Each structure stands twice: as structure tokens, then as C-alpha cells.
Amino acid sequence: MPARNAHERTSRFLSLILRHAPDKIGLALDPNGWADVADLLDKATRHGTPLTLDTLRDVVAGNDKQRFAFSEDGTRIRASQGHSLKSVDLALAPAVPPPVLYHGTASRFITSIRQSGLRPGSRQHVHLSTDRDTALKVGSRYGVPVVLEIRATELHGQGQLFHQADNGVWLTAAVPVRFIDFPAK
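The structure assignment produced for this chain is given below.
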């Protein structure tokens, strides 16, 4: 189990640095969220989180949610989605979503969602999945899970933009209440 724990710690570290706080280690992201791999390895190690290229490759390849991606030439890395940094634009092309997408949340947030819909909070986008099981897993991270159905095609038809991240996660700015189907009580 120690290897798994190290893998998870590295993944959490990369999420923090590549999504929210590259300045914590003095790393620069380009406008599309890419960081130079050699620079990341050097700065992470100098700031107390030793990383090797092999470890980085293992974490990227082994991440079940494919949170991170290398550039085609392998010299750059970025988070696939989930950025709170407003300066990052993943440059994803708008896409037509499937009829229904799912959002996993915790039951304690349902009252607020019923009032205000889904908002990105500190992130740039609301994250949606194509399957109920993934949404259930996401919701489980925050408490008693609830899976919401989003009438994505209908929302898209009203002019709402959707994007699909490299790892398959669907992104949109917000979801008004009228496009959310809540589970029966």
C-alpha cells in the first residue's frame, strides 16, 4: 500500500500545482495551462516534493480519472480540467453534449442547488460526466452522494456552451435549476 499512498500524494500535489497554485513552487503555466516538465520536476524537488520523470509518467498514466496530460512531444504537462486559475484557458473547442449528463454532489448541497442551480464555485466550470457511476463516485467524496441529471442537449439548445476535456469530463459555465432533474425524495 505504500506505493499507492505515494502515488496518491503525488497526484494531489500535481492537482494543487497544475490547477490552483503553480506559484507555490514558482512554476509558470502558459495561457493554456501547460508547464514545462523539466521545470516542474526541478521546482517540485527544490520545494520539498522530490519528483522524477518516471514517477511523473506513472502518475499520469495510472490516474483513473486521467486528470493530467502530457503534450504530444512529452515536454509539457497540464491538468485536464478543474482549474481555479482564471488565467488558464484550455482552448477546448465547443462541443455538442449528449442529451443527458450527470453531476455528482453531496446531499447537503441539494437545497442550495435547488435555489441557485449548479455554479462552478472556485473553478472555471461545472463538471459533468456521461455516466451515473462516475457521478456517484464524485458525489461520494463529499458526503452522502446524490446524482443529478442535467438535460444537456436542452441547455445547449438555449445557447449554453459545452466543452469536453481530454479526459472525457464535460464542462460548462453553470447549469440553471430548470435544466436539472433531481432524484425523487
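Interim note for the steering committee: The first helix runs from residue 2 to 20. The CA atoms of residues 75 and 173 lie 30 Å apart.
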